[in-house]
Specification:
α1 runs parallel beside α11. α7 links the parallel β6 and β7. The longest helix is centred in the last third of the chain and has 19 residues. The chain is 33% helix and 16% strand. The chain has an eight-stranded mixed beta sheet with strand order 8-9-7-6-10-11-12-13, sandwiched between helices. Strands 2-1-3-4-5 form a five-stranded parallel beta sheet. By secondary structure, the protein is of the alpha/beta class. It is elongated and about 70 Å long. The protein has two domains: 128 residues, NAD(P)-binding Rossmann-like Domain (Rossmann fold, 3-Layer(aba) Sandwich), CATH 3.40.50; 180 residues, NAD(P)-binding Rossmann-like Domain (Rossmann fold, 3-Layer(aba) Sandwich), CATH 3.40.50.720. The structure holds nicotinamide-adenine-dinucleotide (NAD).
């Protein structure tokens, strides 16, 4: 019987790059027609690998995947797979942690610059026939010398800092793994309070965890400088969106850039959607042709490695070693 690999979902035009690698290795590719739990649980029952992007790989899906040896995330965040259950069942979980750093940091920096320059509301004024109606009484920072506060100083946070330095920004970072007062590549590590009170722009680059859920609510927004801008290209659920809408409406926060919201798609009645200086993109910060082709290939290569009994490049659940179904 063929070794089957299930692709739960993908958001790029074709699966040719990963299919080529998987078929050359002798595997059969099954593409799920939809990513409901019932469909995935049914299809997972005779596959040896699951490749997933935004689909939820739940306890039920994993339990029904009795032969599965690897759940390979097409992406970085692994909040949509039940890692504890995968480990318990001996299934390796992998991700591709560094395929889109340039894309996400371009997206975050692009949002900061566009929000600060008020490109969206000013364009709307002009397209609405109001060329002479723009009143220049809104906060607009000179980026050279402005302070960018980065929350989460991992791969993406550090990549953003390098680009922001190119604009002449002063960069502060908060990350529980870095001691306050340390300086890394010209970036000073500070407390979250200091990020909030000193930054003109705040950008979030943390994973969604119980400890980061709702980490920015009214209490934190009230600490931010009047006229500051906030950007979230990480995960929905980090910001309490109703609180953010209130702070945008009052003018305390001058702009918000969100590549991720919760729920998705956003509720049409969400007060965020009617704010003037907001940019919302549909979780596309990771995307470029180059980044997705790299992602497709590297995810498939992880599957081939594990199904051939080799250690994957990026194993998330190292506790699986010694008792994994693939013999790792
Ligand atoms: P990373 O693991 O390299 O860095 C994350 C950093 O966050 C770590 O240094 C960690 O110590 C820090 N952190 C954890 N809890 C924190 C807290 N409470 N406060 C401050 N810092 C905290 O991850 P990365 O590659 O930089 O990616 C960051 C996140 O970006 C991912 O988890 C993913 O959710 C998101 N992401 C989004 C897209 C997109 O398309 N929008 C694409 C890629 C990644």
């Amino acid at each position: 019987m063929n070794t089957k690999v299930l692709i739960t979902d993908y958001v790029w035009p074709s699966t040719d790059p990963e299919r080529e690698i998987l078929e050359e290795a002798g595997f059969e590719v099954i593409i799920a027609p939809d990513s409901s739990e019932a469909t995935l649980a049914k299809l997972a029952s005779d596959v040896e690998a699951i490749m997933f992007c935004f689909a939820q790989v739940t306890e039920k899906v994993l339990e029904s995947a009795g032969n599965c040896k690897i759940a390979a995330r097409y992406g970085i965040g692994v909040d949509n797979v039940d890692i504890d259950k995968a480990t318990e069942l001996g299934i390796a979980v992998t991700n591709v942690p560094d395929y889109c750093m340039d894309e996400v940091t371009d997206h975050a920096l692009g949002m900061i610059i566009a929000l600060n320059r008020r490109l969206v509301p000013h364009t709307k004024k002009v397209t609405d026939g109001g060329w002479d109606d723009v009143v220049l009484d809104q906060p607009m920072h000179r980026t050279r010398g402005a302070t960018l506060g980065i929350v989460g100083f991992g791969r993406i946070g550090r990549s953003l800092a390098r680009k922001a330095h190119g604009f002449g920004m002063k960069v502060l970072a908060y990350d529980p793994l870095i001691d306050v007062g340390n300086e890394i590549d010209g970036v000073r590590a500070v407390t979250l309070d200091e990020i909030l009170t000193k930054s003109d722009f705040v950008s979030l680059h943390v994973p969604l965890l119980p400890s980061t859920q709702n980490m920015i609510s009214a209490a934190e927004l009230s600490q931010m400088k009047r006229g500051a801008i906030i950007v979230n290209c990480s995960r929905g659920g980090l910001i309490v969106e109703d609180d953010l809408a209130n702070y945008l409406a009052s003018g305390h926060i001058a702009g918000a850039g969100l590549d991720v919201v919760e729920p998705t798609p956003p509720d049409p009645s969400s007060a965020l959607l009617s704010q003037e200086n907001i940019i919302i993109t549909p979780h596309t910060a990771f995307f470029s042709q180059a980044s997705t082709i790299e992602l497709e290939k590297r995810t498939a290569q992880e599957v081939v490695r594990v199904l051939r009994g080799h250690k994957p490049e990026n194993l998330i659940n190292s506790d699986v070693l010694g008792r994994s179904r693939s013999g790792l």
